[in-house]
Amino acid sequence: MAYFIHADLDAFYASVEQLDHPECRGLPVIVGGLPEDRRSVVSTASYEARKFGVHSAMPVAQAYKLCPQGIYLRGNMKRYRKKSAEVMAIFSDFTPDVRQISVDEAFLDITGTEKLFGPPALVGAKLKNAIREKTGLTVSLGFASNRYVAKIASGMSKPDGIFVVAPGTEEKFMSALPVTKIWGAGNKTQEQFRKYGFKTCEDIHRLPMENLKSIFGTAFGLFLYRAVRGEAAEAFEDERGTHSMSAERTFPYDLYDEFTIETALFEICETLMFRLLNQSWQSKTVSIKIRYDDFSTESARETFPRPVGTIDELFDRLSALFHRKYKSSRGVRLIGAGLLNLETENTPHQGDLFDTVNEKERNLEKHIMEINKKFPNAALRRGRSWMADK
């Protein structure tokens, strides 16, 4: 029987700020921008701020009206990524199969580790204690036989909780939930749920698959049919066997602005490239994934004559793939990217006129990575990612 953990760091950005600034602990902290910043939105709100109705993706100006006494910060993505790396390293102590899906969450496949770490509740306690002691952060954990249910379970006892869905009880667990708990059903879908009088997953469960496809479309109808039955409703592309790495960002609202989408893609490129350098791999094959507001997904991959050498080069390749596949005017809910068919850095490949330039850029990025490891507060960044610190 497969067993997965979904680990979700609690109010991550705000928690890091409260950790670094003890004077902010117990106070409402809102990360994303200052009240006077135009067009800024809330990235993360501490649980103290959430009591006032502040939540992610809310305009900071609106958050200020709800919570004028809050502590408003633009944030420090370099610091957040360092703390994220610390947590991911702890995850790797428990299982070699860690799939990081964003800066503050990951899936852990713990299948077959019972003899080493014990039953789920004990594994969870050990994992949470290790994270708290080594990083000062808290994490909420969901256990289930598939990743989709584990993802939902992790949100059932936040913050700092553990929720276990025992094998064989997935359908019962899902059926009892309100439709607002269906991960992947955004605001437009929730409006449709209200239109058809769907209040619980059981209401959806009663409908045949064809009815769901007729109402919600083929892709999302099939997704709902599986989700409310506690099945592996989300693909969560398996990287095992293909020797690859990937990262993605799910947005709490539909994105239409291509520059904003590209900025998120550039941040993903940073994450992937530093992971690639840190593990001394190289790759010639890149992939892109675009999920729209109706849950339909576009994906593409391309193999190049030589390995990707720099963040900018990776971004150029992925950006070209994105624009080739993107259906303009459609809202984007998720953007993801990957590096496939990884090889060791010393694998020979045919050179070209740009290798010297790329090698200089690659060495620069290695130096940036090493400096930021030694000096966590260093503000060294590349390209577009400066925006993430504003």
Summarize the structure.
The protein is α+β, with helices and mostly antiparallel strands and 390 residues long. The chain contains 15 helices and 14 strands.
How does this model look, in words?
The protein contains 15 helices and 14 strands. With 390 residues, it is of the alpha+beta class. The chain has four domains: 97 residues, Alpha-Beta Plaits (2-Layer Sandwich), CATH 3.30.70.270; 64 residues, MutS, DNA mismatch repair protein, domain I; 57 residues, 5' to 3' exonuclease, C-terminal subdomain (DNA polymerase, domain 1), CATH 1.10.150; 145 residues, DNA polymerase, Y-family, little finger domain (Dna Ligase, domain 1). The strands form four sheets. It has a five-stranded mixed sheet with strand order 5-6-1-7-8. A four-stranded antiparallel sheet has the order 9-13-11-12, covered by helices on one side. The longest helix has 21 residues. It is globular, with a radius of gyration of 21 Å. The relative contact order is 0.10.
